[in-house]
Design brief:
Helix content: under 10%
Shape: globular
Structural class: mainly beta
Order of helices and strands: EEEEEEEEEEE
Strand content: over 45%
Radius of gyration: 13 Å
Number of strands: 11
Number of helices: 0
Amino acid sequence: VRLVEPGGGLVQPGGSLRLPCAASGFTFSSYIMRWYRQAPGKERELVASVTGNGGSTSYADSVKGRFAVSRDNAKNTVYLQMNSLKPEDTALYSCGALSYSSQYWGQGTRVTVSP
């Protein structure tokens, strides 16, 4: 099982970034996919979640209206589109896969929002 999140980096406040998470080794469409983040000195936060068929999404209040989660089951990839980024969005972003019996995690990618 692998979850790989390339695509982090440095972005200016107000900017946008799209994070992909490529999955392999499990039946992707059977899993809820989630994005988490952990800022320095803080606990991990669930940012966004999308159901297996992509039909339902949910977001943390801190990102609602700015972030959008989506998935492409044909490519085994989940995305996090981040808009209107703020310095407080700086964190290690990781994706996770959840089913009734299993849970997997990626290593994460660092996003820094700074002038």
